[in-house]
Amino acid sequence: MSERVKSTEKSPAEDVPQPGPANKDAAPKDAVKAAKAGAAVPSLGFVGMLRWAWTQLTSMRTALFLLLLLAVAAVPGSLFPQRPANPSVVTQYIKDHPDYGQLLDSLQLYDVYSSAWFSAIYILLFISLIGCVVPRAIAHYKAMRSQPPRTPKRLSRLPEYGTLVVPADAGIPASDAIEDAAALLKQRGYRVEVRHDDGARPTLGAERGFLKEVGNLVFHTSLIGVLVSVAVGGLFGYSGQRILVEGDTFVNTLVGYDQFTPGTNFESSQLQPYSIQLDKFQATFDRESQGKFGQPIDFTADVTTKENPGAPAKKEVLKVNDPVTLGGTSIYLTGNGYAPVITVRDGNGNVAMQGPVVAKLQGENYYSSVVIKVPDAKPDQLGFVGFFLPTAFVTEQGISFSGDPDLINPQLSLNSYYGDLGLDKGSPQNVFELDVKNLKELNGRNLKAGGITLAPGNTYTLPEGKGSITFEGVKKYVGVDIHHNPGQLSALIFALLAVAGLIVSLYVNRRRVWIRTGTHEDGRTMVEYGLLARGEDHRLAGEAATLRGLLARKWNLDADNTETAPSNSSPAGSPEPKKDQ
Question: Using N-to-C axis directions, what is the helix angle for 116-145 and 45-57, rounded to 10°?
Fold first, then answer.
């Protein structure tokens, strides 16, 4: 017998795919893989990349993301002190946190709303909204000028569909019926196009609800307006604070403010030279109720204003939430208190300080702290720290407190110091605080001389021949906030327009109506109608019922018009009339 020798070489036939169930699917798959491997992906290029980036930026998803990002970016402004509001607080914060204070400053976290990264988000959001609104506005304008869509061949496929049959003896042909339907739809605010080109079966297309998209566009356009208004206010607006004692006059200049916060592009030439003088301030306190006895219930400031130095004086009343408007700025009443009138004579007998001293409110019944700095006193500078009580009461332990907010028994209690106040070095200081580190105490409760207690008209002579202090009387003061925001009115208008546009877009529905009429062989006029809404419209069924009722009353038909024609005698191509679905 001869033995068969196994060969390791394949014959040419073995390389050829054999027909079979498995190879039927393998060939197309291999062809797809080969096509993918050989396909060359075209490069976008510079222009294509710009077009892609613009498409991404102007998408509504990007606009919403940027709006959320802007809100998140504003959070650090409430977490860290801001340099435009109070530079000294920022400086102290950096000193107190040397490990990361400078890092936060390099990241512009002390000036968030003027930082490069916040401005970039703001500008991108602005561009994104414009890129969203403009194309939509153009498309909506074209849609408003275009005719309603052509009538579908099968109205029965629409969400709301119904038929009506007009008897032959009514004398209403199909052409008149379609005109009647068009008139009714126009009365309901539809934009109607009657199409007689269909011959014996005229149709009409009607559409309404364009205000929905108009409201949407108004909403987004108003958001752009709000952004622009806020930007204008931040760039060219300013705000400041000033304390006015009765008889004082504030002139709108930079040196007239106690604290001033300018906008990014503010210039001093923007300040209008108006003036306001506090003539009298009156606080009304509750004197009837038991639980709230002595609580303030009303504040009234009588002021004299001038629009400019040459303008006539005008008497006005400044109240809480009722500002006075001058030179495009609003002046608000924000605080009040008492200002004891003090006269201080130095060791040489000269008047070193004279006038009202603002007392800062600290507790109930207008309990107020008082700080008096007398840098002009000779031979040593003088300082006083204490409190003012409009109605003083003393306990059995000798502790004084204020029993009423009104000026019934005013009292001034002070401790005195002498030495270097530190004002000659030019370092900024808080007017309501006295640094006593480098001062020597003259008067105090724990010293032999004791403290200083004065009633109006009393004078106290300081120990060691340092001078004297006289409590002349008491005046009242008010704190005012001054705001100038050129974008405030426009921001309000755009905000109201945004709300109006949003309401319109939510409550107005976009609807389309098609009606087809035809004449049956027996003379009856067959009418079918269909309604379609763009988006969800839960009131579409009600609109269909209303339309059916109007047509029925127009042609004196029963509300439930169920008459039908024989199926073998209906107009050619016309569906058999049937009830509302």
Answer: 90
Q: Is 36 exposed, middle or buried (0-12, 13-18, 19+ CB in 10 A)?
A: exposed
H or E segment at 337? Answer: strand 329-345
Read off the pLDDT band of 289 (50, 70, 90).
Answer: confident
Beta-bridge partners for 533: 511
pLDDT tens per residue, range 474-500: 999 999 999 999 988 999 999 999 999
Tokens of 64: 């919403």
From residue 92, give the alpha-carbon distance in Å to each of 87, 97, 106, 268, 330: 9, 9, 16, 28, 31
pLDDT of 122 reads 86
- Closest CA relative to residue 548, chosen from 536, 557, 539: 557
Is the pLDDT score of 444 beyond 60?
Answer: yes
CB atoms within 10 A of CB 315: 9
Its pTM surpasses 0.70: no
φ, ψ at 100 (rounded to 5°): -130, 5
Report pLDDT for 54. 86
Q: How far apart are alpha carbons 109 and 101 in whole angstroms?
A: 10
Spatial distance between the Cα atoms of 353 and 241, rounded to a whole number of angstroms = 24
Q: Is residue 226 within 8 Å of 199, Cβ to Cβ?
A: no
Beta-carbon contacts of residue 354 (< 8 Å; ≥ 6 apart): 342, 343, 344
Cα distance between the two ends of the chain: 89
CA angle, 295 as apex, 292 and 299 as ends, to 5°? 145
Smallest CA-to-CA distance from 457 within 436, 467, 472 is with 472
pLDDT tens for residues 78-119?
A: 888 888 777 778 888 888 888 888 888 888 888 888 888 998
Q: How big is the chain, counted in residues? A: 581
Q: Which residues pair with 452 in a beta bridge?
A: 414
Name 113's Cβ contacts closer than 8 Å, sequence gap at least 6. Answer: 74, 77, 82, 84, 234
d(CA 344, CA 341): 10
